[in-house]
UniProtKB/TrEMBL annotation:
Keywords: Membrane, Transmembrane, Transmembrane helix. It is a multi-pass membrane protein. It comes from Brevibacillus agri. The keyword Heme does not apply. Residues 28-163 form the RDD domain. This is RDD family protein. The chain crosses the membrane at residues 43-62, 74-98. InterPro entries: RDD (IPR010432). Pfam families: RDD. One of its GO terms (cellular component) is membrane. It is found in: Membrane.
C-alpha cells in the first residue's frame, strides 16, 4: 500500500493516505502510556528472571556432574545467553505474533504498527527491539525517552530505524480505563457475504490492502472517525462489487466490511 504520512504535531496525530485517497488517522502513544506499559512488562520479566535464577541455582547446586560446572566462565556465559534470549525474545515474539502488542501494551491499549498503517512484521519488530539496547543508554531508557519526547510522532530510536510507530487504540483512551463496547460489538461473528466469482475477480490486491488495514486498525480509531472511514471504504468497495443502490442501503458499513473481510480472508491471506 502506498502511503503519504503526515503529522499534526500539536495533537500528536499521525495520518496515512491510501492510494484510494482514504485517510487513516492514529493518535500516537505518549511517554506516559509507553512508560506504564514498559513498567508492566518489566515486572513480568523480573518475575520470570527470578524464576529462572532460582531454577538454575537449584540445578547447579543440586548436581555436581553438570559439564560446565568445571568452569565458572561457561556457567556465567550460559546464564547470560539464556537471560538475553529470554528478555529480548519476550518483546520480539509478542510484538511479532500478537499484532504489535506485549502484555503491557495490551493492558495500556497501545500497539506497534508500521508507518504505512500496516501491522508490524517480524523484521520490523526485530529491528526496533535490537535498538532497544541503544534506547536504554545510559540507563533507564533515558536516550529513547528523550528522542521520543521531542519527536512529533513520539518515536524512540528503534521506531525511527524500524519504520514503526506506537499508537493508542480506541481514539485516545487506554484499555485500562475504557469500556468494552468494541468487544461487545464484535462478539457476534459477522456472517460471510455471498459473492459471485465475477465479484471476487473484480476485487484487487489494493482493495484487499485497504480493507485489511481498516479491519486491523479499526480499534485504533475514534468512533466518529471509524464510522466516517467505514462509510467511505464501504461505498468504494460496493461500487467495485457492482452493488445496486438498494443493496448498498441495506448494508451497515462496518458490518459490511467485516463480512467482506471474513469472506475473502482465506484466499487473500494466502497471497500475503
Amino acid at each position: 500500500m502506498n502511503e503519504n504520512p503526515s503529522v499534526n504535531q500539536a495533537g500528536r496525530e499521525a495520518s496515512v493516505v491510501t492510494p484510494e485517497h482514504v485517510m487513516l488517522r492514529f493518535q500516537t502513544a505518549g511517554l506516559g502510556s509507553r512508560a506504564a506499559a514498559q513498567l508492566i512488562d518489566s515486572v513480568i520479566l523480573l518475575l520470570v528472571n527470578l524464576t529462572v535464577f532460582i531454577v538454575i541455582g537449584i540445578v547447579l547446586f543440586g548436581k555436581e556432574d553438570i559439564f560446565f560446572l568445571d568452569s565458572d566462565g561457561y556457567a556465567i556465559a550460559v546464564v547470560i545467553l539464556l537471560l538475553f534470549v529470554l528478555n529480548f525474545g519476550y518483546f520480539l515474539l509478542l510484538e511479532a505474533l500478537w499484532s504489535g502488542q506485549t502484555v503491557g501494551k495490551k493492558w495500556m491499549g497501545i500497539r506497534v504498527i508500521r508507518d504505512n498503517g500496516q501491522p508490524a512484521t517480524f523484521l520490523s519488530s526485530t529491528i526496533r527491539n535490537l535498538f532497544r539496547i541503544v534506547d536504554t543508554l545510559p540507563s533507564g531508557y533515558f536516550l529513547g525517552a528523550l528522542v521520543s519526547f521531542f519527536h512529533p510522532r513520539d518515536k524512540r530510536i528503534g521506531d525511527l530505524v524500524a519504520g514503526t510507530i506506537v499508537v493508542v487504540e480506541g481514539g485516545g483512551r487506554t484499555a485500562l480505563f475504557q469500556n468494552r463496547k468494541a468487544k461487545k460489538q464484535g462478539a457476534a461473528l459477522a456472517e460471510p457475504l455471498a459473492l459471485s466469482e465475477q465479484q471476487k475477480q473484480a476485487f484487487t490486491r489494493e482493495d484487499w490492502q485497504l480493507l485489511s488495514t481498516f479491519i486491523a486498525r479499526q480499534s485504533s480509531l475514534a468512533e466518529a472517525k471509524k464510522l466516517e472511514l467505514a462509510g467511505e471504504i464501504a461505498r468504494l468497495l460496493q461500487k467495485k462489487l457492482e452493488y445496486s443502490e438498494e443493496q448498498a442501503r441495506q448494508e451497515e458499513p462496518i458490518l459490511f466490511l467485516q463480512r467482506l473481510h471474513r469472506t475473502l480472508q482465506s484466499e487473500w491471506s494466502l497471497g500475503k
